[in-house]
Specification:
120 residues, mainly beta, 11 strands, 0% helix
């Protein structure tokens, strides 16, 4: 079993910062996984925020570029999302994802989510 546990969410004022963490445990070769952060706002679909590949390549969606940074620490089996200049529209539940494809099998795991609320 693989568990992903997010932490670091909370209530912050507009313009503030938060750092989310996602700790992986269980039978996982963490360094081989692409790690991602997704978010889901009330009444909306879950959307991608950022991913970091096993090789360290990062992708951030346009709405968070320059404000959010994804990173990983393979020694700690942990991925992070540093969020700065937060806006009310960043309010959502943030989910961590671990994904690896070993054809034909896809290994895909999700955390339970952590709430981020940005007040105006």
């Amino acid at each position: 079993q693989v568990q992903l546990v997010e932490s670091g969410g909370g209530l912050v004022q507009s313009g503030g910062s938060l750092r989310l963490a996602c700790a992986a445990s269980g039978s996982i070769f963490f360094s081989l996984y692409t790690m991602g952060w997704y978010r889901q706002a009330p009444g909306k679909q879950r959307e991608l925020v950022a991913v970091i590949t096993s090789g360290g390549r990062t992708i951030h969606v346009d709405s968070v570029k320059g404000r959010f940074t994804i990173s990983r620490d393979n020694a700690k089996n942990t991925t992070y999302l540093q969020m700065s200049s937060l806006k009310p529209e960043d309010t959502a539940v943030y989910f961590c994802n671990a994904n690896r494809v070993v054809r034909p099998v896809e290994y895909d795991y999700w955390g339970q989510g952590t709430q981020v609320t940005v007040s105006s």
